[in-house]
Amino acid sequence: MTSTFDLPQRLLLGAGPSQTTDRVLRALGSPTLGHLDPAFGELLDDLSARLRTVFRTENRVAFPVSGTGSAGMETMVANLVSPGDRVICGIHGLFGERMADELARHGAHVVRVEGEWGRAIPLELMTEATKDGFDAMFVVHAETSTGVAQPLDGLADLCRANDALLLVDCVTSLGGHRLELDAWGVDAAFSGTQKCLNVPPGLAPFTLGPRAVAKAETVDCPSWYFDLSLVLGYWSGDGGRAYHHTAPINLIYGLHEGLGDVIEEGLEARWARHERAHGALLRAVRALGLERLAPEGEQLNSLLAVRIPEGVDDAAVRGSLLLEDGIEISGGVGKFAGSVWRLGVMGFGANPEPQRRLVEALAKRLGHEPADALAELDAGWTSD
Amino acid sequence: MTSTFDLPQRLLLGAGPSQTTDRVLRALGSPTLGHLDPAFGELLDDLSARLRTVFRTENRVAFPVSGTGSAGMETMVANLVSPGDRVICGIHGLFGERMADELARHGAHVVRVEGEWGRAIPLELMTEATKDGFDAMFVVHAETSTGVAQPLDGLADLCRANDALLLVDCVTSLGGHRLELDAWGVDAAFSGTQKCLNVPPGLAPFTLGPRAVAKAETVDCPSWYFDLSLVLGYWSGDGGRAYHHTAPINLIYGLHEGLGDVIEEGLEARWARHERAHGALLRAVRALGLERLAPEGEQLNSLLAVRIPEGVDDAAVRGSLLLEDGIEISGGVGKFAGSVWRLGVMGFGANPEPQRRLVEALAKRLGHEPADALAELDAGWTSD
C-alpha cells in the first residue's frame, strides 16, 4: 500500500514545481476554516493586498483562481475575449502555443506572431501585427519552455492606441524576475504558485485592471467555473463574500505565507538575488560545458535553459540525478524535447546551497571534476 | 499583519468544508514532489484505484479534476455535451439550478424537471421528460442545499433505452451516503473532497464509464483546462504521463490519505455510521424543537437540513455558535436562505463527540437545557 508519508524527498530544481519551504508546508497543514468564516475573510483581504504588492499593481481585482496556472489563462480568455475578437498572440515557446489554442477555442481570430524559440520576440514583429487593428494582445513574459524573458516595452502603447487590452502570462516570473504590471501598462495577468513563490501547484494568482474589468462586462463568459461576474462576488464583492464555489482554503494558507516570504525579503532584493543566482549558476554550468539557450539580455533569471551537449544521454542523466542524487531538473519540451535541460532558479532554489548540490551532481553525471564549476559558482555569488 | 498561524480553530459542522483530520493535514504538509516523478506516478495510480473503490466502479477513468467540485461539473459538461444536445436536468435545489446554468452555457437544450426543494424528484417526473428523446440525463444525488438524497432507481434504464448518458453530482454523498456507480448504471460522476472525505477543497473526484468515454470522443471541448483528451494523457495515458497542467500535488496527498481513511473503515461500515449519526443528531435536535426538511426516506445521511423555528434569529445564532462556541454550521441558500440550517454529518463530524459539542451549543443558543437533547443523541448512538 502506497502512503504519502513514505514518499522520497527530492530537491526540486527544474521548471516547477519548485521546492516548497517549511513555512509554506506548515501553513498548508493548518486546520481548515470555513470559506465564509470572517477570520478567513480577513486573511483573503490580506492575500489580495499581498498579491497587489508582488504584481506591482493597484488593481482592485487581485486574487488566486481556484486551479493551476493554466486555469488563470482560461479565466483570462473566457472573460476578456469575445468570439470574433482579433487577438495578437506572441508565440516563442510552448506557452504561447498553448494560448493560441485557448484563444481559438474561444472563437478569437488569432493573429499569430511567431518568434524564434529561445529568443525574445522583437517589438517590430509585434508592431507589424497591429496594422489591421486588434482587440487584445497577449505575450508570455516568462517562457518556461525556453528560459526567455519577453520585454514588454512599447506593447502597452500599441494597445492603448488601438483601445486593446494587454494580456500577460507571468507564471514563472512572479516573485523572481522583475515584473511591474502598472508601470508597464498590463491590463490582465495570470501566474502560478509553484515557481518563484515556492508554493505547491493548485492556484493561479490573477489580476485585472480597470480597462479589463470594463471589457469583461461586455463578454458572455462561456464558463461557469471561471465566470468573473460570479467569482468576484466572493473575492471583491461590496456587501461581503457571496458563495460561488468553495475556495481552496489550505492552498490559500500556503500562498499567503509564500507571498509573505517574498514581501519580507523585498521585491527589489529578491529580483537581484535571482539575477545573481542565475549568473552564478550559468558560470558554473559553463565550466561543465553547458551553454545557455537564451542570449545575454534575453534570459529569464528564474529559469536557466541549457543545451544538452552532443553525446550526452538526456534521460539517463536526469534519471540518475533524480533517483540517485535526489535532485529534479527538467527536460526540454516541444521542439526542445531531448536537446535542452531546464534548471530552476526559483525562490528557495536561487541560493548557493541548493545550487552547490546541483552543480556537484551534474559534474559527476557529466564526468567532470566539480572543483572548477564550484569555484565559478562561488565567484558568481561573491563578485561585484 | 495577518498570519495563517494565528487563525482561530473551529469545529466545522456545516455544509462544507468539513473538519479535516490530522492525517490529512499531515499529508498536505509533506514535501512536494515533481508531477512527473515516478514516485508520484505510483501514488497517482494508487489514488485512482482508491477512487474506484469509493465510487464503487471499475471505470478505467477515475481521477481528481484540478479544481473544486464545480470544476468537476464543468469537466463533465464540457466533455460530454455538444451544443444542441437535449439534456434532462433534475432540479430540486441550488445544485440542480447550477447545472442547468452550466448546460445552457454549453449550448445544450435543457429539459428542466423541477422537483420540490427539500424532496426527492419522483421517477414519474423524470420519465415524463424522456418522451421526446434525449442525449443525457443529469441528477444531483446529494442536494447540499436541502439535505435530500435522490434515488437513482430506474434512471439508468431510461437512459439506456434512449442511448443517453446518466450524469450524477455526488459531491456530498461520496464516502458518506450509499453510492454505487456501476450497480446503478451511472456513466459519469463528479464529487468534492471537502465533504465526507474530510479533505480541504480544491479537487473534484471524477469518473467516466466506457459509454461516456465514447461520447467524449465526439465532443469538441471548448475548454483547454478541462479537455479530457489532454487531461487524460496525464491521468490514464498508455505510454506514461504526458504533461498537460501541473497537478495540485499536495492536495493530492491529502486526498490520498482521506480516501485511505474511508477504505480502512470500509464503505458499508462508513455508510452505516453516517446513517446512525444522522439519526442520532435528528433525535437530539428534535428535542430542541427543530424539524428536518426532508421527509423520512428522502434524507441525505451526510447533511441534516432543519427548519429554523419561528422567532429565532438565524444570523445571531450562527454568529454566536461560530465566534463564541467555535462551531460552524451553515445557513440556508437559495429559497431557503434565512429559514434553514444545514448541519454536516460528514466523516469526522459523524461521531458522538463533535455532535455532543454541537448539541450542547445549539441548546444554549436556543435557550434550552441540553440534557434531554444529549440523552436523545446518546440513545440514537446506542439503540439498535
What do you see in this structure?
The structure is a homodimer of 384-residue chains. Chain A is an alpha/beta fold and 384 residues long. Helices cover 40% and strands 15% of the residues of chain A. The first copy, chain A, has helices at 22-28, 38-55, 69-80, 94-105, 123-129, 155-161, 181-184, 210-216, 228-235, 249-265, 267-286, 314-323, 352-365, 371-382; strands at residues 11-12, 61-65, 86-91, 109-114, 136-140, 142-143, 148-149, 165-169, 188-190, 204-208, 291-292, 303-307, 327-328, 330-331, 340-344. In chain A, the strands form four sheets. Chain A has a seven-stranded mixed β-sheet with strand order 2-10-9-8-5-3-4, sandwiched between helices. In chain A, helix 1 (22-28) packs antiparallel against helix 10 (249-265), helix 11 runs parallel beside helix 13 and helix 13 runs antiparallel to helix 14 (371-382). The longest helix of chain A has 20 residues, at 267-286. The relative contact order of chain A is 0.17. The mean pLDDT of chain A is 97. The interface between A and B is large, with 73 and 73 residues.
Q: What is the molecular shape of chain A? A: globular
Q: Number of helical segments of chain A?
A: 14
CATH topology of the largest domain in chain A: Aspartate Aminotransferase, domain 2
The SSE string of chain A, one letter per element, is EHHEHEHEHEEEHEHEEHHHHEEHEEEHH
Please tell me the overall pLDDT of chain A: 97
Say which CATH homologous superfamily of the largest domain in chain A is assigned: Type I PLP-dependent aspartate aminotransferase-like (Major domain)
Q: Please identify the structural class of chain A as seen in this structure.
A: alpha/beta
Q: Main β-sheet of chain A, in a few words?
A: 7 strands, mixed
Total E-strand runs of chain A: 15
| Biggest β-sheet: strands ordered side by side in the sheet of chain A | 2-10-9-8-5-3-4
Strand content of chain A: 5-15%
What is the top-level CATH class of the largest domain in chain A?
Alpha Beta
Oligomer classification: homodimer
CATH architecture of the largest domain in chain A, by name, is: 3-Layer(aba) Sandwich
Which pair of protein chains has the largest interface, and what are the residue counts? A-B, 73 and 73 residues
Radius of gyration of chain A: 21 Å
| Poorly predicted parts of chain A | none
Roughly how many Å apart are the termini of chain A? Answer: 53 Å
Q: Structurally, how many domains make up the residues of chain A? A: 2
Helix content of chain A: 40-55%
